[in-house]
Write a structure and sequence with these properties.
Layout lengths: L1 E8 L3 E8 L5 E7 L5 H13 L8 E8 L2 H7 L6 E6 L5 H4 L24 E4 L2 E2 L5 E3 L3 H13 L5 E5 L8 H13 L5 E3 H4 L5 H32 L4 E5 L5 E3 H6 L7 H16 L5 E6 L4 E7 L2 E2 L1 E2 L2 E3 L2 E3 L3 E2 L2 E3 L5 E5 L5 E7 L18 H7 L6 E2 L4 E2 L2 H15 L3 H23 L11 E5 L3 H12 L3 E4 L6 H8 L2 E12 L5 H20 L7 E11 L6 E7 L9 H16 L8 E12 L19 E5 L7 E7 L8 E3 L2 E4 L4 E4 L4 E4 L5 E4 L1
Helix pairs in contact: 1-7, 2-7, 9-14, 10-11, 10-12, 11-12, 12-13
């Protein structure tokens, strides 16, 4: 009897979802995160989780892990001290960047300082042209000079190698890496032709530099995690979740940590999509509200869009990632008065330590969680009673702000909730309204520990009528991890006019198919189905940006669709993105992408339906407005059977989350035991 475990490390809690792959039994577990060493919370949580297993005969077959270590290292500038090697004359490219301003009306905004100091950016006299022809070879003298310069640099933790046109011809980068690896065997080396082999120098240089920057910190974390898990579970298969929505090996995660930039939130999207489809909801907007931040994503027809370029904390990453928007709004977001005297919430968070004041762990600053407990919306026992909250400390934390604002503590708490809701509403508008999608045509799916507390208010702001809350919203990211498959992406730049001979495109597809088949043979050894999804990046000639067109599964066929089909697919995508298309304008193919997916075996969750008529286990006073508190029934979620309906006000509590049902709203439990709320 084997178990599969998903573990998602958040800023406040580390969540576990364990599923028996024989009978579908599911066990969930939460414990406080350990920010100083995230692997410690995982190892402790596994020991605690195993105590819930009934029999010693059960073993853990696979562990899937979503991590924020890469993101946090980048946000907090805790990466390595790097050296950059580039083509002569291009050492400043990584700092010059693009002319696009992130905020065109802010004249005072500064770009973040580059990850690599200028004195650590070294040049080598070599050149490859735009067709991949070698104009000037790398000489032994040039490599020896580089070695001398590198030895003079102080405390170097890694090397990034980014040469011009290496995405067409990588021989010079490979030669440099081989030579420097022999001279500096203790240093990790990232080369752009392996990290991101696409055209556009700045994006390629930036992505490679970020990868090298994260390697020391992430590599150390992965090593500690693997060592700890191997000691306790030597036969366990360990996979790491990527921002693109699939699992990879821990070795590849160590080599390419930039792929884990949005690892945890992306797993939540996978879990949300599966949950929504099981309840016949195809078009949803996710609201993943945790302790530190909230992540939102738009899902159409059960699929989330992939973005091939993202900025994280001002740093450009060009890699496939699930298109998620993150805002600093979570249960631990700190409320404060700005210089203008107005109430603000976030983005700074109290995190797991010291945490919100109500946690009683030393925190004294008012947070969203403190506001919720003051208003009676949050129960005083969390995580199945393992964590007790202190309401009086929450009052004490909010009181100083209330006095300055000349409001009651409850009115101030309502203000805190209103502001954090507005922050999350703006995040949802950015992935819907600003991209031409009407949120009224979608259902809202809140999850994370705090999502259900704020869902109705946010839905009302956006005129969303239906809200779907999964069975275990607090650990949906962890559940998404065990539902995920092994995945690898391959890309090759192949700029070709669509009306020309497409032999070069067909050749590029064949080359990528060979790489994908090698991956299936070595790393992608899942027991389930295998698929190869072909994407072709196209644009009108002269456009700055291209659209990635899904051509379909090409595992059994390698032929490219005819030009008419490709054009029509492009026209549809262009109209969907920009509202128009020109059938006569010239089109060109830019990149060929191949996504290899190897399915892993995961049995569906065994749902046990309680058939007894549920009764509230207590009545509490909850503030829904600034007039007075209302008597509110509190139900244990496990007592709610399929088909049960309820009108607000009510609070639904469970081990991993809390759901608030305000007055004039209704709730119904569907066949999958998901909650369907209607405003």
């Amino acid at each position: 009897m084997t178990w599969i475990i998903g573990v998602d490390v958040g800023g406040t809690f580390t969540d576990f979802c364990a599923r028996n792959n024989t009978n579908g039994q599911t066990i969930i577990h939460k414990r406080p995160s350990t920010p100083h060493d995230p692997s410690l919370a995982i190892l402790l949580g596994l020991k605690e989780l195993k105590l819930k297993f009934v029999s010693d005969k059960k073993r853990i077959a696979r562990l899937a892990h979503g991590t924020t270590v890469a993101t946090n290292s980048l946000l907090q500038r805790k990466g390595g001290n790097l050296a950059l090697i580039t083509t002569k004359g291009f050492r400043d490219l990584i700092e010059i960047g693009r002319q696009v301003r992130p905020s065109i009306y802010d004249l005072q905004i500064d770009s973040p300082s580059p990850l690599i100091k200028r004195r650590n950016r070294l040049e080598i006299d070599e050149r490859i042209d735009f067709e991949g022809n070698v104009i000037k070879n790398i000489s032994s003298h040039g490599i020896n000079n580089l070695e001398k310069k590198l030895k003079k640099l102080i405390n170097i933790d890694g090397i990034a190698i980014c040469l011009l046109f290496s995405f067409i011809n990588p021989t010079h980068e490979i030669k440099l890496k081989k030579a420097l690896s022999l001279r500096f065997p203790h240093l990790p080396i990232s080369i752009s032709s392996e990290v991101q082999p696409e055209f556009r120098e700045f994006e390629r240089f930036s992505t490679t530099a970020i990868n090298a920057y994260l390697q020391p910190e992430v590599g150390k974390y992965m090593e500690n995690l693997k060592k700890g898990i191997t000691t306790n579970e030597p036969n366990l298969e360990l996979n790491i979740f990527q921002s693109s929505g699939g699992l990879t090996t821990i070795e590849r995660a160590s080599d390419f940590p930039v792929r884990m930039a949005l690892s945890g939130p992306a797993a939540g999207v996978v879990g949300a999509s599966e949950t929504a489809l099981s309840s016949s909801f195809k078009d949803i907007i996710t609201l993943d509200m945790g302790g530190t931040s909230t992540d939102v994503c738009l899902i159409q027809k059960g699929k989330a869009e992939l973005a091939n370029m993202r900025d994280i904390s001002g740093f450009r990453i060009r890699l496939p990632m699930i298109d998620i928007n993150t805002v600093g709004a979570g249960g631990g977001s700190i409320a404060h008065l700005g210089k203008d005297g107005l109430l603000k919430v976030g983005p700074v968070s109290a995190g797991a330590v010291p945490g919100p004041a109500c946690y009683g762990l030393g925190g004294s600053k008012p947070t969203v969680s403190d506001a919720n407990i003051v208003l009676g919306r949050l129960p005083e026992n969390l995580v199945g009673g393992e964590m007790k909250l202190n309401k009086s400390k929450a009052y004490k934390a909010i009181s100083p702000i209330a006095r300055k604002l000349k409001l009651s503590v409850e009115e101030t708490a309502l203000g805190i909730i209103g502001i954090v809701n507005s922050n999350m509403t703006r995040a949802i508008r950015s992935v819907s309204v600003e991209r031409g999608h009407d949120p009224r045509h979608f259902s809202l799916m809140p999850f994370g520990g705090a999502g259900g507390l704020h869902a109705i208010d946010i839905a009302n702001e956006l005129s969303i009528k239906n809200i779907l809350i999964p069975n275990s919203p607090g650990i949906l990211c962890a559940e998404g991890l065990i539902l995920s498959n092994l995945q690898e992406s391959f890309v090759k730049t192949c700029r070709t006019p669509i009306d020309s001979n497409l032999r070069s495109v067909q050749k590029a597809i064949s080359e990528l198919r060979i790489k994908a088949k090698n991956w299936f043979a070595n790393e992608g050894k899942g027991k389930g189905n295998k698929s190869l999804l072909l994407f072709i990046d196209m644009r009108y000639v002269g456009q700055n940006y291209e659209l990635s067109i899904n051509v379909g599964n090409t595992l059994t066929k390698s032929n490219l669709p005819n030009k008419i089909v490709l054009k029509n697919l492009f026209f549809e995508a262009h109209k969907r993105s920009y509202g128009h298309f020109d059938p006569l304008a010239a089109i060109e193919i830019v990149n060929i992408r191949l996504r290899a997916i190897s399915e892993l075996d995961c049995r569906p969750s065994n749902i046990s339906n309680n058939k007894k008529s549920p009764k509230p286990f207590k009545i509490t006073q909850v503030w829904f407005d600034n007039k007075k508190a209302k008597s509110t029934k509190v139900f244990e979620r496990s007592s709610l059977p399929s088909g049960f309906s309820l009108k607000g006000p009510a609070i639904i509590v469970q081990e991993d989350a809390t759901t608030l049902l305000p007055p004039n709203c209704s709730l119904k439990v569907d066949k999958k035991l998901n909650l369907v709320l209607r405003t």
